[in-house]
Every structure is written in structure tokens, then in C-alpha cells.
């Protein structure tokens, strides 16, 4: 029987919400940790969990300031610190090594984990990971200190709207449901998140550079939608050249939100390529 437990863990003063899906009768299964993308949450992996729960002990978590985790300005929102959070989480649960599955920003955090903590990552499973993005330029960094910047950010995201943001992430926008809209919208009703997003803009150190990526020795499964409007498919081909041990799988009719659009195919691929 697979048990689902919602719990909280405190890291650097921030309360982190996570779910643990564990087979009560089999404690020897490998661990798979899902890491979500920017403006998202652990909710984005809900379709994949039941497809993989017979093969892995699964952990999902809400990176701060997203989902049901804390939204505090004192947290350091760098990718390296997020990677430290993943390793801290593993240490707290006595997990020596785990498969890391990251989508978009979560993919970059997974890559950062593999770069700084290679012995803790059994295999990388990257779903359209953020890559080759520089840190905020000096002008953007300076403007972010203006006292009204977080209000501007709030109005900008409100003008765009959750539905339009999701449409841009999907190839088939008929998959967008009212439940998805309600869940993805929830964190942005809290005004505190906009101050955190402003700080995240300043804290983000930029993606790993090419030299770092080429030094990642961890095996990697790389998935990408050819209709991705957020991170174009050309990035996938570049990553396939730069990551030393990578297996690239592309989808003709999928956009950026792969966990929502093609969960079954990805999960089948994970099961067949991550056998103990």
C-alpha cells in the first residue's frame, strides 16, 4: 500500500511543504525527488506520481516561495541554496542518493545538485530544464530595489493572467482545467509572494555555465517538447552536446509543461531506464 503524507520541514527559517509517497511494505525502493519549475509547485507532478509509485519512494516539495511553503524575504533564493535545500532534505531523511527529476527551473536546480553533490544524485531526469540563462543585468538588478517594484511585478503577472501563462506553456490548451487554474493561481493571491519574487530576481546567480555542465558526470535523461514556447527545442540540442552522459527524448506535439501533457510516455521511459 502506498501511503501519502503531507509534512513540513524548516530550512533556514522557511517552512517547506512536502509530500512523501512511500510503499509501507517495501523500504528498499530507490528515492525519486521531484523539483518543480518557476511559478509552479509540486502539484505539477500529480499525474506522474501514481504511474511511478510502484517503482520508487517519491518525494515532492514546494520550493519557497511557491506552493504551500513559506514566503519570507529573509530566505536566500539562489539556485545553489535551493540545491543545498534538496541535499539538506535528503540528509534529514537519511537518503544517501536519489534520482532527481526537475522541470524547467527545477531542472536547473537538479543540475546544480549534480554539479556540487555528484555522489548524492543517482541519475538526472530533466524535463525542459532552464539552461544557459544569465543572471539579471545591472539595470534590472538596480530597478528591483525601487520600493514599488514588487507592486509593478504583481500588476504585470495579474495582467498576463494564470490562464494565459498556462496557455503559453501548453501545446494542447484543451488540457487546461478549472482545477488547474485554481491551484496554480492560489499562491499569487498572497501579496507576500511578490516581494519574494523580487528578491529571487536579485538572488538568482544565473544558470550553470557551459564549462560546469560539461563537467557533470551523472547520467541524464533529457525530455523536451518541440512546441515549447518558453524554452525552444534548440536548447535541448545544445544541452545534448554539452552534457557528457545524456539520452535525449523529444515530443513532436508537446509544449513546456511536459508533466501535464505527456506524463505516461515520460514515466514509461523513466521506469525502463532507471532500473535498480
From TrEMBL:
Keywords: Hydrolase. Residues 31-260 form the AB hydrolase-1 domain. Pfam families: Abhydrolase_1. This is Alpha/beta hydrolase. Signal peptide: none annotated. It comes from Aquibacillus rhizosphaerae. GO terms for molecular function: hydrolase activity. The keyword Ribosomal protein does not apply.
Amino acid at each position: 500500500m502506498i501511503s501519502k503524507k503531507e509534512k513540513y520541514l524548516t530550512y533556514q527559517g522557511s517552512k517547506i511543504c512536502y509530500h512523501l509517497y512511500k510503499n509501507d511494505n517495501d523500504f528498499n525502493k530507490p528515492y525519486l525527488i521531484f523539483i518543480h519549475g518557476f511559478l509552479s509547485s509540486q502539484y505539477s507532478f500529480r499525474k506522474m506520481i501514481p504511474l511511478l509509485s510502484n517503482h520508487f519512494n517519491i518525494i515532492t516539495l514546494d520550493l519557497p516561495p511557491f506552493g504551500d511553503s513559506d514566503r519570507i524575504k529573509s530566505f536566500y533564493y539562489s539556485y545553489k541554496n535551493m540545491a543545498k535545500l534538496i541535499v539538506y532534505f535528503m540528509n534529514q531523511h537519511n537518503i544517501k542518493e536519489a534520482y532527481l527529476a526537475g522541470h524547467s527551473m527545477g531542472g536547473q536546480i537538479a543540475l546544480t545538485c549534480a554539479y556540487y553533490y555528484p555522489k548524492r544524485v543517482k541519475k538526472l531526469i530533466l524535463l525542459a530544464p532552464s539552461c544557459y540563462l544569465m543572471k539579471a543585468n545591472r539595470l534590472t538588478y538596480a530597478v528591483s530595489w525601487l520600493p514599488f517594484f514588487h507592486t509593478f511585478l504583481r500588476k504585470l503577472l495579474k495582467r498576463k493572467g494564470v490562464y494565459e501563462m498556462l496557455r503559453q506553456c501548453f501545446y494542447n490548451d484543451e488540457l487546461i482545467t478549472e482545477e488547474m487554474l485554481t491551484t496554480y493561481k492560489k499562491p499569487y493571491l498572497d501579496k507576500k509572494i511578490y516581494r519574494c519574487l523580487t528578491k529571487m530576481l536579485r538572488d538568482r546567480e544565473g544558470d550553470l555555465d557551459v564549462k560546469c555542465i560539461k563537467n557533470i558526470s551523472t547520467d541524464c535523461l533529457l525530455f523536451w517538447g518541440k512546441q515549447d514556447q518558453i524554452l525552444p527545442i534548440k536548447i535541448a540540442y545544445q544541452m545534448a552536446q554539452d552534457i557528457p552522459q545524456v539520452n535525449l527524448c523529444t515530443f513532436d506535439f508537446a509544449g513546456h509543461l511536459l508533466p501535464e501533457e505527456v506524463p505516461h510516455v515520460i514515466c514509461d521511459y523513466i521506469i525502463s531506464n532507471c532500473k535498480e
